[in-house]
Backbone:
């Protein structure tokens, strides 16, 4: 049991890094929409 | 230079102990020589020493380096085609992945405080040395690209850094294939022809996934197409690799992580070009699946290599076949 | 591989010739090596692998004596264990100090270097413990030492050579199974010895690593073996991994160009 916990802990930095990347990237993608509300909800359809 | 010589009297005629001939004397009773099975190894011990690399550092780095590099390339393409939202999301993602890469690389060193020692030489024979210099060239540009985009300062410099990081990013995303192939680990070494394409495909798929996850729907078309193209290349390269390697490819064909990676990537890529074009939630789910799929692929490749290093048959049997082939060719000639 | 190490060193290249046919498995080489080089203790385990409890070469084992037990006759010897043929093969393994050394090629810090004697040595104060040399070695020789975090392997007693002393293992070997000297001279000696052993009835005897045309360009430490190399835990046809590196870089270049072109194409269309 303890060994399994230790193994999971080893992967936490990696999972944390991926979570941080996704969050910051998502926030950056959202921030680019500021001032262009037409893009926020519905995609442009042609 | 002194040399080994056990003769005490210095006489050349005296037969030295080292001239003893084993098995030359004695009265062996005649016995039937029973059929001998050819030993494959020494007590089943691996021939190679197990790589000291840990999957949560090096397999993670293979993934993060690919994500960073391909994201920068995607960001440059998005910026040059007038998609600022996708460009910004990809630049910020690339910078984060670069930070993660550096953390993993330095964390894996036995003496992390000496990581700068890698900048004392440039060796084209060492993919790790080449990679260090690729990171040194890529890192500041990726940083500048993200920083100028977020702050709006120095747009000219930002444009140059974006393009520079986009070009250097292709090297960062693919050199890691040479990094692991340039070892004696049977699966990694033998797969060196397909590995760069597999890694390039996997990197494009993950960058596309991140773009889908983070960029506005209206701008994410390149990310969706990159994910689809990347996944296709990755799957083709992987199946070619598995077939061409023959018996050495066994650990690859057995790998459940690789199968899971392919399934996640395919699901994400197909969802990307269908439902994720309209729904933001579906796009985020497809992007996450693509990221997870790429990570599974890298971990799968890493573990298949470790498995082949730890079993002597993957080292010994191909070499025996190579020797037999050489002998046969010599006899024909 | 136009670089000819033997020519470059002007005949100054030294090496080991390990004649396993006269190895008695006393392990004096292992002990002498540990003592002289201050190689730390690395586990006192009972493996059950004949008399071998050191298992293999690693960061903390620079000489390793292998014990192979076979139900095979040893020439005309009567083993005296009932109605059974039996022989014991013993062999003292060591770093091969390859002409084309993969560990040296891939080292990203330049910590591994080629000495003026043609040997390959780790500079402990430069190594940052990246571990690349470990999977690069086709013989499984070099390792990363847990206690210091840096790579370690046989130096062929680099510190003894300038004083005109032979390496500790060769000095202590009581049967001269480990012979140290000028590599060219050792190769001639090995050829003579091989003929002698084969004429005495051991037709399975062979030299391993003597041939400068093999996959690692010939080994600075080579062996006379009485059976296939894999029986002793040695790879039968080792090849320096960097031999394929030019092709690897070409494939990487193609993949990088493909990645650039692919992403450019995906962004080309407006929608």
Residues:
């Amino acid at each position: 049991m303890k060994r399994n916990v230790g193994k999971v802990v080893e992967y936490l930095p990696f999972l944390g890094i991926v979570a941080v990347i996704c969050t910051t990237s998502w926030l950056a993608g959202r921030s680019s929409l500021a001032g262009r509300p037409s893009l926020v909800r519905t995609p442009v359809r042609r | 230079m002194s040399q080994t010589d056990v003769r005490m009297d210095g006489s050349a005629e005296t037969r030295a102990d080292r001239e003893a001939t084993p098995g030359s004397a004695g009265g062996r009773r005649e016995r039937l020589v029973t059929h001998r099975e050819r030993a494959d190894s020494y007590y089943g011990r691996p021939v190679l020493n197990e790589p000291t690399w840990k999957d949560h550092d090096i397999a993670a780095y293979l993934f993060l380096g690919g994500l960073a590099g391909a994201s920068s390339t995607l960001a440059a393409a998005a910026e040059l085609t007038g998609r600022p939202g996708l460009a910004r999301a990809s630049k910020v993602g690339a910078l984060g992945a670069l930070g993660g890469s550096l953390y993993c690389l330095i964390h894996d060193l036995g003496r992390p405080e000496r990581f700068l020692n890698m900048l004392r030489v440039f060796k084209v024979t060492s993919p790790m040395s080449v990679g260090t210099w690729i990171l040194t060239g890529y890192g500041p540009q990726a940083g500048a690209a993200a920083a100028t985009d977020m702050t709006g300062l120095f747009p000219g410099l930002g444009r140059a850094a974006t393009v520079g990081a986009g070009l250097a990013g292709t090297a960062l995303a693919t050199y890691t294939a040479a990094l692991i192939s340039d070892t004696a680990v049977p699966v990694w070494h033998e797969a060196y022809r397909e590995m760069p394409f597999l890694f390039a495909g996997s990197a494009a798929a993950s960058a596309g996934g991140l773009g889908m996850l983070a960029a506005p729907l209206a701008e994410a078309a390149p990310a969706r197409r990159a994910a689809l193209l990347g996944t296709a290349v990755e799957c083709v390269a992987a199946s070619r690799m598995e077939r061409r390697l023959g018996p050495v490819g066994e650990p690859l064909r057995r790998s459940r992580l690789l199968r899971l990676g392919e399934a996640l990537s395919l699901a994400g890529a197909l969802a990307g070009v269908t439902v994720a074009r309209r729904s933001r939630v579906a796009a985020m789910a497809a992007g996450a699946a693509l990221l997870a799929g790429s990570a599974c692929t890298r971990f799968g490749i890493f573990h298949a290599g470790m498995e082949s290093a730890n079993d002597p048959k993957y080292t010994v049997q191909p070499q025996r076949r190579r020797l037999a082939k050489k002998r046969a060719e010599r006899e024909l000639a | 591989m136009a670089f000819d190490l033997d020519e470059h060193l002007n005949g100054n290249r030294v090496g080991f010739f390990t004649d396993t046919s006269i190895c008695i498995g006393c392990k004096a080489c292992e002990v002498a090596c540990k003592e002289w080089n201050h190689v730390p203790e690395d586990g006192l385990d009972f493996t059950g692998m004949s008399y071998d409890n050191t298992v293999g070469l690693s960061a903390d084992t620079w000489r390793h004596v292998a014990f192979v037990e076979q139900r095979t006759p040893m020439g005309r010897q009567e083993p005296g264990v009932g109605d059974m043929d039996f022989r014991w093969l013993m062999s003292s393994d060591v770093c091969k100090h390859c002409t084309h050394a993969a560990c040296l090629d891939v080292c990203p810090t330049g910590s591994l270097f080629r000495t003026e004697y043609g040997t390959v040595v780790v500079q402990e104060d430069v190594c940052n413990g990246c571990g690349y040399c470990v999977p690069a070695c086709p013989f499984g020789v070099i390792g990363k030492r847990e206690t210091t975090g840096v790579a370690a392997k046989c130096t062929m007693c680099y510190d003894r050579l300038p004083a005109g002393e032979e390496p500790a293992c060769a000095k202590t070997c009581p049967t001269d199974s480990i012979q140290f000297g000028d590599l060219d001279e050792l190769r001639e000696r090995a050829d003579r010895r091989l003929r002698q052993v084969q004429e005495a009835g051991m037709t399975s005897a062979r030299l391993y690593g003597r041939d400068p045309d093999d996959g690692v360009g010939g080994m600075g430490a080579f062996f006379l073996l009485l059976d296939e190399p894999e029986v002793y835990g040695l790879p039968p046809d080792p090849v320096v991994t960097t031999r394929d590196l030019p092709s690897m870089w070409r494939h990487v270049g193609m993949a990088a160009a493909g990645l650039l072109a692919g992403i450019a194409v995906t962004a080309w269309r407006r929608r």
User: Anything to note?
Assistant: Residues 1-8 of chain B have pLDDT under 50 and may be disordered. The radius of gyration of chain B is 27 Å. The first helix of chain B runs from residue 55 to 80.
